[in-house]
Amino acid sequence: MLITFEGIDGAGKSTQVVRLKRHLQELGREVLTLREPGGTEVAEHIRELLLLSKHDIAPVAELLLFAASRAELVQKVIIPALDEQCIVILDRFSDSTTAYQGYGRGLSLELLAEVNRIATFGLRPDITFYLDITPEDALIRKFSEKSLPLAFDSEELDRMESSGLEFYRRVREGYLALFESERDRIEMIDAQLSPALIHERIVSRMTRVETLQQASR
Description:
By secondary structure, this protein is α/β, with parallel strands linked by helices. The protein is built from eight helices and five strands.
């Protein structure tokens, strides 16, 4: 089973990935958690270029770098893990490309669909948890946790996070559009709920999905 977590930066994805992994391991399941971009030596180098560098990367180049990292991860790690019946939990996947490079950067959605198809080798998540939060609240959360002044030009922000408030508003619009078009796959959860309540809702949806999968076998 492939499970993905999506949402703008500051939505709390990492916290929920850790909670879900622990829950599944307690049930005796084999679980692998990964992040995008990253997960292999090559993909981690691409991550550093995309997120930690100060380079001004053209939107199409940015898209292809994310795609290259994803293709590397899918072929070398994710597909082999799924073949071994391991549950794979991903912090970001192809929906991020649609939201960030499509709605955020303004690239063609048709182009993105084809690039995503190639980079994922046609692999689709069984379920996606989208943690919804406004960019304003996400920024406040990020800086309040570190007791830092609120500013989009802060050195605490990576290259993507420094793209500005309007960019993140468009990204959120992209996620909401994806949710409306794929409600059967995407579970939208209010990221402002308590971490414990969010986890409960994730586990509940997971249980329903697995029940349906077992019934269809």
